[in-house]
Every structure is written in C-alpha cells, then in structure tokens.
Amino acid sequence: MTAAVPLPDPTPLSALPAPPNDVGFPVTEWSVGAVADGLDNERIEALTEGIVTDQPEALGQTLAMLVVHRGQLVVEAYGPGTTAETTLISWSMAKSMLQSVVGMLVLDGRMDINAPAAVGEWDDERSAITVRDLLRMRAGLRWNEDYVDGDTSHVIDMLFGGGAADMGAYAAALPAEHVPGDVWQYSSGTSNILSRIVRNVLGGQAAYESYLRHRLFEPLGMTSAEPKFDDAGTFVGSSYVYATAHDFARYGLFNLRDGVVNGRSLLPVGWVDQARTMHAWDAEDEQGYGEHWWVANDRFGTFFCNGYEGQRIACVPALDLVVVRLGKTPAELGPAWRERFSALISCFEF
Fold first, then answer.
1. Which fold has domain 94-229?
2. What are the distances in angstroms from CA 127 to CA 90, 172, 224, 294?
3. Which among 75, 117, 262, 266 has the fewest CB atoms less than 10 Å away?
C-alpha cells in the first residue's frame, strides 16, 4: 500500500466526547445499557447479532461484534467457538497500541518524536529518518507489505521467515528508496523498527513488558492483553497483541476519551489528535492514514485501528461510539465487510 495520490479535502476533526457524568471508564466492568430510543434497533441488530448468527459467506467469518455507545456496552455478540473470555489476535491493531506507548514515553520525557530515530545501523541517508516519520509510515525504506506472495513479501519474511528472530533489525537493514518524509508506504517493518527503539529506551524485554502492563494495559483494565515478543526482546508492535473483545473495546474507548481514564491523563495533550489527523490517503481502500491510526475522513470523524482479515476498533467522536469487529475476512471480501461496518456506524446518527 503506497499513496501516490493527493489527499482529499480533510473533514475537520470532530471534538472528542467527554464521558457522561454517570458512566465511568470500565476499568473493572462495563456499564451495560440498551440501544438508545430513537435509533433503528432492528437494523442495528441485523448488522451485529444477525451477521454473527448467520455468518454470511460474503463477509467471511465474524467472531465478535461489540458496540459501546456513550460509554455503555449496548451490543455484544460472539461467533463460533468464541465467548467474552476468548482472546483473539490483533494483527495490525497492535500498531495503534504501539503509538500509545510512544506517547507515554513522550509524556515521560524519554522520547522526542521530532528527533532522528536512534537506529545504530543508520549511518547513511537513513540517519535523517525521525520518529515522526516512522509514526506516519514515511521512513522511505524499501518494503513490500504483501500477505500472499511469500517470494517477494518482506512482511511474511519478517514475521515467519528469516527476519522473525529480530524483526526490528530485519526492517532496519533495508535500504532507503525515498527521502524521509516524502512518500507514504504502509510497512509493518516500520512499526517494528519503532518498537525496537522503544525497547532500547526502556532497557530490554523485561522493562518493556512491565511498561506495557503497568502504563497501558492495567490502567485501562485490559487484564487479558498478551503482547508477543521476538527473540531479540522486542514487542512485535506490528501484529501481536492477544486480548478479549471487551479489552479491545476498552482500548478504543481510551482513545475516544483522549487518553483519559477516570480523570487521569495517560497521554500527552493532543496525542490522540495527532494520531487521527490525516497525512496520507490509501486510494485502493479509500481511507486515510494518520500516525499509526487509520482515518475514515467521514462526517463522524471516525478513526480506527485496522488489522488483517477485518479486525477493527473504530472510534467515532461525533456519535460517542466505539465499534469492535474481530473475525477472518479474506481481502477480496473486504469491501463488502467495510460497507456493512460503515452502515452500522451510521445507524447511531440521530
């Protein structure tokens, strides 16, 4: 995925909604509610429980659907072999979690995203690459994000082949093809370079695991979250967090609430706004990219974590809505699934 087209006119950022006074952040348990009066409950049910029950072939397999409206869990449905306790893979939704960890290091004064990225191998033109370039997928390094052709795919080789032992080093060794900042190239390797930098800042795998647990997962109540590390001790921030649908929804709500949990700010001021500001446009899938988050550029201000096979956590500021979908949808069925997903979001517009 490479953007070689100009950005469409961006929609203004919708204000992130404040939590209702009577609904706290679900650190221990969710406040459960019903779909609000005045909404098309029948249509919402058809696009959630109906899909999970019927499993239409045109959409692939749906394993979990959750809808959080105004801070309350209003829809919850699970597919075959899946329950509220089942941990499911994030795939590239993990990239957005990595972005949050970088923000926490910025808040701690331990990382400057405008500074050159601290990568020892880069003693040539790559030394100009900044952390912000990495966050925006504008490092300019050679990369092929192909999940089918293993002979040409860097991502397959990194995750499952010769690069699997030290994924950040594998990606960092690739040559430059563009001036840093000039060209957008979606790259799981870029995320693992960034995660390797985080590992080095924190001092190794044990410190990284502790930071993830105590600064991100525990404050949000994400008790099921299990990040995976490569042999070099780097969190595979491109791909691997396992968690329940409830905990993925907690992460979405955390960002919809601007990184605030029950009055406590866990991210720098404006960090979520940076993530959801569009800097590139993927013409193939007709969606924008910010800083390790995707941007719908719709009238609701939707921004989202996006993973392989249709994993998605959508944050919808104008509707105070979080929608989580986990499943296994082949790429060729992606357009049909995204259309249904967008239709579900629209159901919550009064």
1. Beta-lactamase (3.40.710)
2. 31, 11, 38, 27
3. 262
